[in-house]
UniProtKB/TrEMBL annotation:
The keyword Repeat does not apply. The gene is ALPL. The keyword Magnesium applies. Its EC number is 3.1.3.1. Binds 2 Zn(2+) ions. The active site is at 112 (phosphoserine intermediate). GO terms for molecular function: alkaline phosphatase activity; metal ion binding. InterPro entries: Alkaline_phosphatase, Alkaline_phosphatase_AS, Alkaline_phosphatase_core_sf. It is found in: Cell membrane. This is Alkaline phosphatase. The lineage of its organism: Eukaryota, Metazoa, Chordata, Craniata, Vertebrata. SUPFAM superfamilies: Alkaline phosphatase-like.
Length: 402
């Protein structure tokens, strides 16, 4: 009996400790080779459009697993007075659908940081880490160096394309961060959230990396204003609310630095909807829009006077990015309220589900995709929508214009 208890105890301890995974999973080449093999096999199955895309837009619905998509489809139909299931979302009309696995190397139910590293950088990674391989350990600054992996946003920039990030979360939140940062901890939003030892060891906060890693990201829009401003500097929109004040202990004003650095270019910093919509995209080459101190509001709670919708942000972003004759890459994230688990609860709790904010946001995203299908030719583009992080699988719908 005692032996049995000890065994159980060891098993529990083992499962609480750091999960082990094969050494080869720390090597980016392992994932790249696997992806290439999978792709090669897929290409032998049927004649696919093998033209090279000039532009790529990735719409990422955080929490948008297959059950959520199904729920959104039904809701969209019911809002139109139909029974729902027969409805088509815009992405249902895409010619290709595929599934991809974006799990974390050390966790079955993954988080946005590791999954974003998987689909943006092509390398699976540990939970909570951004733009680093699985050789990096969460929160251990000294495991960063040498383990950095780069993202499709950087590859696009290096190829001479314009690049953009639009999100309804803060711009230094896990998903967008994996596009530009190399950070062992997704919570290191500014130096205020970092341990002193990590700062002393030379690790940089994510907000700083947004401006320092990939020079001149053409379009950046979302929330996260407070992480850019000196500690205690009052917020422009909520001057009397202390928790919205600047957080930076290094006293830097990253927005002012950006404005100064870009002053010979056609650059604009905006913090509200009026400013955004009054811009003429033809006269803007670089845009920084920070519309809330933290994450932006869910669409149903949004102040429609002061904050732009995701659709409005994407519309402006595309107009700016498409001016580049070499093409562009745009990452768009719509944050749903919570994960699939919460949504399944909402589903099973009956009619209240139909007020689900997640699902309405999803409809907004699909409306976006539809809006984008009308995007003027001759721009060749691939539009992908995908879900993350959903424990079971990720769905991709791909529409490519030949
Ligand atoms: C890295 O830092 C951790 C503490 O965060 C320490 O335990 C470990 O020994 C360090 N490793 C190296 C190789 O310096
Ligand atoms: C910010 O304000 C807090 C609370 O008033 C104060 O304790 C802290 O010293 C201030 N920090 C700086 C850098 O001004
Ligand atoms: C938007 O910003 C401009 C410029 O700072 C300001 O004049 C205007 O009052 C702001 N509008 C709203 C709705 O906050």
């Amino acid at each position: 009996m005692t032996a049995l208890l000890i065994i159980c105890f060891c098993l529990i301890l083992g499962s609480l400790g750091n999960p082990q995974f094969p050494e080869q999973e720390k090597d980016p080449k392992f994932w790249n080779a696997w992806a290439q093999r999978t792709l090669k096999n897929a290409l032998t199955l049927q004649e696919l459009n093998k033209n090279k895309a000039k532009n790529l837009i990735l719409f990422l619905g955080d929490g948008m697993g297959i059950p959520t998509v199904t729920a959104a489809r039904i809701l969209k139909g019911q809002l139109n007075g139909q029974s729902g299931e027969e409805t088509q979302l815009e992405m249902d009309k895409f010619p290709f659908v595929s599934l991809s696995k974006t799990y974390n190397t050390n966790a079955q139910v993954p988080d946005s940081a590791g999954t974003a590293t998987a689909y943006l950088c092509g390398v699976k990674a540990n939970e909570g880490t951004l733009g680093v391989s699985a050789a990096a350990v969460r929160s251990q600054c000294n495991t960063t160096q040498g383990n950095e992996v780069t993202s499709i946003l950087k590859w696009a920039k290096d190829a001479g394309k314009s690049v953009g990030i639009v999100t309804t979360t803060r711009v230094n939140h896990a998903t967008p961060s994996a596009a530009y940062a190399h950070c062992v901890d997704r919570d290191w939003y500014s130096d205020n959230e970092m341990p002193v030892e990590a700062l002393q060891a030379g690790c940089k906060d994510i907000a700083r990396q947004l401006f320092e890693n990939i020079p001149n990201i053409d379009v950046i829009m979302g929330g996260g204003r407070k992480y850019m401003f000196p500690k205690n500097m009052s917020d422009v929109e909520y001057p009397n609310i202390l928790k919205h004040s600047g957080t930076r202990k290094d006293g830097r004003n990253l927005v002012q630095e950006w404005v100064d650095r870009m002053k010979d270019k056609k650059n604009h910093y905006v913090w509200n909807k009026t400013q955004l919509l009054s811009l003429n995209p033809n006269n803007v080459d670089y845009l920084l829009g920070l519309f809330e101190p933290g994450d932006m509001m869910y669409d149903l709670e949004r102040n429609t006077e002061s904050d732009p919708s995701l659709t409005e942000m994407v519309d402006v972003a595309i107009k700016i990015l498409k001016k580049n004759p070499s093409g562009f890459y745009l990452l768009v994230e719509g944050e749903f309220e919570a994960s699939v688990m919460v949504q399944l609860h909402i589903c099973s709790s009956g009619p209240s589900f139909f007020s689900g904010r997640n699902v309405l946001s999803l409809i907004q995203v699909t409306a976006l995709v539809s809006a984008d299908c009308r995007f003027p030719q001759p721009y060749k583009q691939h539009i992908c929508t995908m879900a993350e992080p959903s424990p079971l699988n990720e769905q991709w719908a791909v529409r490519s214009v030949p």
